[in-house]
Write a structure and sequence with these properties.
- There is one protein chain.
- By secondary structure, the protein is α+β, with helices and mostly antiparallel strands.
- It folds into 5 domains: about 1-55, no CATH class; about 85-175, no CATH class; about 210-360, no CATH class; about 380-495, no CATH class; about 510-615, no CATH class.
- It contains 11 helices and 29 strands.
- It has helices spanning about 10-25, 90-105, 180-200, 215-230, 235-255, 260-285, 285-300, 305-320, 340-345, 365-390, 500-505, and strands at about 75, 120, 125-130, 140, 145-150, 155-160, 165-170, 395-400, 410-415, 420-430, 430-445, 450, 455-460, 460-465, 470, 475-480, 490-495, 510-515, 525-530, 535-540, 540-545, 550, 555-560, 565-570, 575, 580, 585-590, 595-600, 605-615.
- Strands 1, 8, 9, 10, 11, 12, 13, 14, 15, 16 and 17 form an 11-stranded mixed sheet that branches.
- Strand 25 (about 575) and strand 26 form a beta hairpin.
- Helix 4 (about 215-230) packs antiparallel against helix 5 (about 235-255) and helix 4 runs parallel beside helix 8.
- The relative contact order is 0.09.
């Protein structure tokens, strides 16, 4: 009798398969590419028999960065149409395009209109164009468009509730690289807008498939996706056989992970897979869809994108296959649904195949296994080097790329500090041009992109590091950062020349007023500059919070985001009249439970700094 499947990990079977079973079935003998060590949560842990491993490479020194493979070279540019500023006229055009697509569907795809409140907005100014009016007068109708400013407490993405409607808010950044391609614009907008109506269609729990990027899961999901693609590209018995294999591979994976992880995976498939399916059905023909899926699968192998491919394209393939059978698969669909189970029922499969009976080489196992092992070796090196290069306190140069700037062909790895991008590429933006050769860039949480600046050399508008070269455009400079007390730091940033005075304003030995504040400073009509200790806001914002009201007239505020969060203004011209305090460019009215005091050090000596504090 065979050992119960739940006591054997999924990839033990794959290892056994590659060693002997395929030969026994009369198929070609598998090469021994690598082994897996996997955890089985039922009911004991077992480890695959180690296979021969390649020679271990020597440790990688952080400087210089060594090349591991043929470098990838991409050029990232911004189309002229959206390169400089948010264009309300273009936003109106793009919204009209998606509304025409919704009208053409007329509820056919999902049995309901896909028309939804939709906003395109600029990230910095928060100027926005909507496809319909709101009920609170936030948007006014001018020159054929609903235009206004996004409220400061509203973020980006789906299901943003304000003005009496539930909106999808799309950043203008997303059009940077597709401004000249209407089909690509419609793909982005149709996918995004469907997320906004999903709560009206589906119920249930949505999880995050944290297991998706594990070695075992990546290999399994790629095999499943190539089997699904084979099914879509075939007919009759051949299609049914490929579906049977895909479902068998899927079931084996689900038995080797936690039940909660299965729920996370299937829920994420509904979330992203139905949106991907909607994007495909509204914008592409079937031959274009199959070509796109093939390109996505092939380009995702051996990359950091693989873990996120399945929920989008694997699930979309299940939906496309379900369309081929006479079933109402969309009825009762929810986030707790399993698209695989729905297809199994639609096809009439009652018993799945043991893995040793599946010819995995039919689904490109050899290619998948080889490329994926190379990826994980590279992945580990990238993580180790990134942790050295971007360790806390290490020298860095911050460069103002768009936060969502894509790097479609480069390695991207999440580490504790943020997202690391590795490769050889050139990136062009308003600031100038950055060239990186076999090197690393980090996008940390809430901070611009960074490169290591340990060996920085500044020569006018040409700045170089150990693996990168930056050429600045007119109107931009590199400045050295300062700490909260004005001390110089081993970090640098690219800033607009006109902003240097604002940075120096808070770096000088001056008298300041600090006010406790943990919210968001309204930036409507203002600009801001990130710094290591917070954000400098330039303009005339009004801040209303528990302390009272601070009104600024064409001046600078530093929003300190370290330790006890606060906002800082210059207090050299401070005038105190009870609860009413003024400076050279600001006015503060305190609430009754707050007071203004002059700060002291640990010895009780009075400092040239004022603070607002709550009365105890």
């Amino acid at each position: 009798m065979k050992k119960p499947f739940l006591r054997v990990t999924y990839f033990l079977l794959i290892t056994a398969l590659t060693i002997g079973s395929i030969t026994a079935c009369g198929r070609r003998e598998a090469d021994t590419y690598y082994s897996y060590t996997t955890e089985n949560y039922y009911p004991q842990n077992e480890t695959a028999t180690p296979l021969p491993q390649p020679e271990e490479e020597p440790p990688i020194e952080p400087y210089p960065i060594h090349i591991y493979e043929e470098p990838q070279l991409i050029t990232i540019t911004t189309p002229t149409a959206v390169r400089t500023n948010f264009s309300p006229d273009l936003a109106v055009q793009y919204l009209a395009e998606i509304e025409a697509l919704w009208a053409a569907d007329d509820g056919a795809l999902w049995g309901t209109s896909l028309n939804t409140p939709f906003i395109v907005t600029d990230r910095i100014t928060r100027q926005a164009v909507a496809n319909m009016p709101d009920y609170d007068g936030i948007f006014s109708y001018e020159n054929g468009m609903y235009i206004g400013y996004l409220p400061d407490n509203i973020f980006f993405g789906a299901n943003q509730e304000f003005g009496g409607r539930t909106w999808y808010v799309l950043l203008w950044d997303y059009f940077f690289y597709i401004a000249d391609d209407e089909t690509q614009r419609l793909r982005v907008m149709s996918h995004a807008s469907f997320h906004n109506i999903q709560p009206n269609l589906f119920r249930g729990r949505i999880g995050w498939p944290s297991h998706a990027d594990r070695r075992e899961s990546r290999l399994s999901t790629f095999l499943e996706m190539y089997a699904l693609l084979a099914a879509l590209n075939s007919h009759g018995e051949e299609r049914l056989s490929a579906i049977h294999d895909a479902l068998s591979i899927r079931a084996a994976r689900h038995q080797s992970i936690r039940p909660s992880e299965v729920m996370d995976e299937t829920g994420h498939e509904i979330l992203e897979g139905t949106a991907q399916y909607t994007e495909y059905m509204l914008t592409l023909e079937m031959d274009e869809i199959l070509l796109d899926i093939r390109q996505v699968l092939d380009s995702s192998l051996g990359t950091s994108r693989a873990g996120f491919t399945f929920a989008y394209h694997g699930a979309a393939m299940y939906a496309l296959l379900l369309n081929e059978f006479d079933v109402n698969w969309k009825d009762g669909l929810g986030f707790n649904s399993d698209l695989g189970s729905l297809l199994k029922e639609a096809v009439g499969i009652t018993e799945l195949r043991p893995l040793e009976e599946i010819n995995l080489f039919s689904y490109e196992y050899e290619k998948i296994a080889t490329i994926e092992e190379i990826w994980f070796e590279r992945h580990d090196r990238i993580v180790a080097n990134a942790r050295t290069l971007f360790a806390f306190g290490s020298p860095s140069l911050e460069i103002p790329f768009p936060a969502d700037m894509p790097f479609p062909t480069l390695d991207q790895v999440f580490v504790s500090m943020g997202l690391v991008v590795y490769g050889t590429f050139e990136a062009t933006g308003l600031f100038g041009q950055l060239s990186i050769t076999n090197g690393y860039m980090l996008h940390g949480s809430g901070r611009p992109h960074r490169v290591c600046a340990a060996d920085i050399e500044i020569n006018g508008d040409r700045i170089t590091g150990s693996y990168w070269e930056l050429t600045l455009n007119d109107g931009f400079n590199v400045v050295q950062d300062t700490g909260i007390h004005g001390t110089s730091l081993d970090s640098f940033r690219v800033v607009r020349t006109e902003h240097i005075s604002a940075l120096e304003f808070f770096a000088a030995d001056r008298t300041f007023l600090d006010i406790p504040f943990t919210g968001f400073i309204p930036t409507t009509g203002a600009s801001y500059i990130p710094t290591p200790i917070g954000v400098v806001v330039i303009g005339s914002p009004e801040v209303i919070s528990g302390f009272g009201t601070l009104s600024v007239n064409d001046g600078y505020i530093l929003h300190i985001q370290q330790d006890n969060w606060s906002i800082r203004v210059c207090a050299e011209d401070i005038q105190i009249d009870g609860m009413h305090i003024t400076g050279g460019y600001w006015e503060l009215t305190l609430n009754n439970n707050y007071e203004l005091v002059q700060d002291t050090n640990i010895l009780g000596e009075v400092l040239d700094r004022f603070i607002v504090r709550q009365i105890q």
